[in-house]
Specification:
12 strands
């Protein structure tokens, strides 16, 4: 059993910001806690007609990663993310978790300002406001916290106060209960083609990986995408897993099984790997998968430029980005570490292929990867010729490295 706090609300209400600060506070207080953003647990398209919005899939994946975090020692899990305004959280997918649902809300004028201020598309604003109205008319949440005119630390305090001091006395360690039930009805093995993009910090793994993913969708495949960093927020990590690869690998395998059950034919993965031994951890977790490990490389000048840009707020704002807002001295130190990592990976020859990204956009590098690998040739397009456009996800990603 693990205690879960699910923070929901319309886009722009502050779910992720509040959830991340709560997770950090739990870490500082010595609690064994984990964090995952629901948006990261449903990147699998085209979606099934029987699961519009992929809400059942996401709830099932929350249960799957909650089990992975529990095995890593976490006793509570903070989850920000959207839910179906009519049905609420799909609790059938979370049979072994104690779930508290907290809805965050804000008035329409403030919601409009926040949504547009964070770069939301003006054309989506009406839909966001309708969703907020539908949530206001709902009654599925256990508690509701108003965020208008309230600073984030105070919202966190109110959330914990309204939820009875969550997580309270989180459950103690339990015996291994195995995999969560297959609520999607057709569990599939974690097999099939997996393209993994690795490399040093700042090399462009996420930007290139998502560009590759979009091309795979446009080619007519049903495909999924996983950022390993986003499924590994767990503190403290077990002593026998200091790099967190074991918990990430376990969560990756669980997500891929869900996506395979939903019809996914190919998986794009992005995330760091320090040495061949770490690669082996993932291969062991997904023994039936056909891995293609692609290492992205960049020189000192390019890595430094990209890391400094991320520190200034450039690119996609991901939860837990350790570079955003850091002082220049710290960012230059990260760049030095990234250069050392790049040299180590180069010397070890990690990867099935190496792609130089210096001076190239994410789209250009994605084209090179697919041309050199012919990936995912092991899968057959679900419908139409390879040039057919598939349904594209709305989640934004940076186009330049």
């Amino acid at each position: 059993m693990i205690t879960v706090l699910w923070l929901c609300g319309p886009p722009g209400v502050g779910k992720t910001t509040v959830a991340w600060q709560l997770y950090q506070e739990l870490n500082r207080s010595g609690r064994s806690a984990a964090f995952v953003d629901v948006d990261q647990l449903g990147i699998c398209y085209p979606e099934r007609a029987a699961d519009p919005g992929r809400h059942r899939m996401k709830a099932h994946n929350v249960a799957a990663v909650a089990e992975g975090f529990r095995r890593a020692g976490a006793r509570c899990l903070v989850v920000p993310g959207v839910v179906d305004a009519e049905r609420g959280v799909e609790l059938a997918g979370l049979p072994r978790a104690a779930v508290t649902v907290c809805r965050l809300r804000v008035g329409p004028d403030e919601l409009r300002r926040r949504f547009l201020g964070r770069g939301g598309a003006p054309g989506l604003l009406d839909a966001v406001l309708r969703e907020a109205d539908a949530l206001d008319a709902s009654d599925f949440a256990d508690v509701c916290v108003e965020t208008g005119g309230v600073a984030v630390p105070e919202v966190v305090r109110l959330v914990r106060e309204r939820t009875g001091g969550w997580p309270g006395s989180a459950p103690s360690a339990a015996v291994d209960a195995g995999e969560p039930p297959d609520v999607l009805g057709e569990r599939r093995p974690a097999d099939g083609p997996v393209l993994w993009l690795c490399g040093a910090t700042g090399v462009g793994k996420s930007a290139v990986g998502f560009a590759v993913y979009q091309r795979v969708l446009r080619a007519g495949f049903t495909a999924a995408y996983v950022d390993l960093d986003q499924v590994g927020f767990c503190h403290p990590l077990p002593p026998d897993d200091p790099g967190g690869h074991r918990v990430r690998a376990r969560n990756l395998a669980a997500l891929w099984r869900t996506y395979r059950s939903a019809g996914a034919q190919a998986l794009v993965v992005t995330g760091p790997v320090g040495d061949p031994a770490a690669v082996g951890v993932y291969a062991q977790a997904l023994p039936g998968a056909e891995f293609t490990l692609c290492r992205l490389h960049a020189g000192r000048e390019e890595l430094t430029r990209r890391i400094m840009r991320r520190g200034r707020g450039g690119g996609w704002s991901q939860p837990g980005d350790p570079l955003r807002g850091q002082p220049a001295e710290r960012l230059l130190g990260v760049a030095d570490e990234a250069v050392t990592t790049a040299v180590t990976l180069e010397d070890a020859g990690v990867g099935d292929l190496r792609i130089d990204t210096d001076g190239h956009t994410a789209d250009q590098v994605a084209d090179v990867i697919l041309a050199r690998t012919a990936w995912p040739s092991a899968a057959e397009p679900k419908a139409g010729p390879r040039a057919r456009l598939g349904r594209r996800p709305s989640m934004p990603r940076p186009r330049h490295l």
